[in-house]
């Protein structure tokens, strides 16, 4: 980031903190831009929700956010149609070349999460919402596309009080996972306090899509991923 991109606002930002590496990097990116962080963590019946919550809590112990709000819902699990929330659908092994929508896609999840984040931000007079979505997400997940976030900004503007001014920030939306890992190392993100595996709460499987993209990112920048894996295939290509 250039010096001109830093703001020193002393304003607050709600950050969707899943417990994963992208959202953790978004936390540090928001703080680098001068925002005081407000954590919003959601549990919605995903397979690894306990580990994700634990990871978000550990990150909060390091960062010390102004607020930490955990919202527990079950509607996305009841809706189903995703391998992350429906035990009858198997979590597939990584297929990093596929452009199809993967079985891990949760229908319209980000709209649900961003709606909660907007409510929280407006109630706390926060001026921004940060989400860690990136380019390798939107290649398969329609609710991670830049056009989705642009449209949701219009929803925020239309659906909040006239005096409310909340900017939706997706700072990594055009970035690769590798670029995020590189930025996070630069910012000192404690990646040992994050979790990305879709299948397991310990150790990470190393072979689902999320593990594969994470391991590839660390392998490409020559840094060992600090979390424990059942296996560590080489994804450097």
TrEMBL record:
Pfam families: QueC. Its cofactor is Zn(2+). Its EC number is 6.3.4.20. Binds 1 zinc ion per subunit. Pathway: Purine metabolism; 7-cyano-7-deazaguanine biosynthesis. Keywords: ATP-binding, Ligase, Metal-binding, Nucleotide-binding, Zinc. ATP binds at residues 17-27. It comes from the Archaea. InterPro entries: QueC, Rossmann-like_a/b/a_fold. CDD domains: QueC-like. GO terms for molecular function: ATP binding; ligase activity, forming carbon-nitrogen bonds; zinc ion binding. It catalyses: 7-carboxy-7-carbaguanine + NH4(+) + 2 ATP = 7-cyano-7-carbaguanine + 2 AMP + 2 diphosphate + 2 H(+). Zn(2+) binds at residues 197, 205, 208, 211. Catalyzes the ATP-dependent conversion of 7-carboxy-7-deazaguanine (CDG) to 7-cyano-7-deazaguanine (preQ(0)). PANTHER family: 7-CYANO-7-DEAZAGUANINE SYNTHASE. NCBIfam families: 7-cyano-7-deazaguanine synthase QueC (TIGR00364). Belongs to the QueC family. This is 7-cyano-7-deazaguanine synthase. It comes from Haloferax marinisediminis.
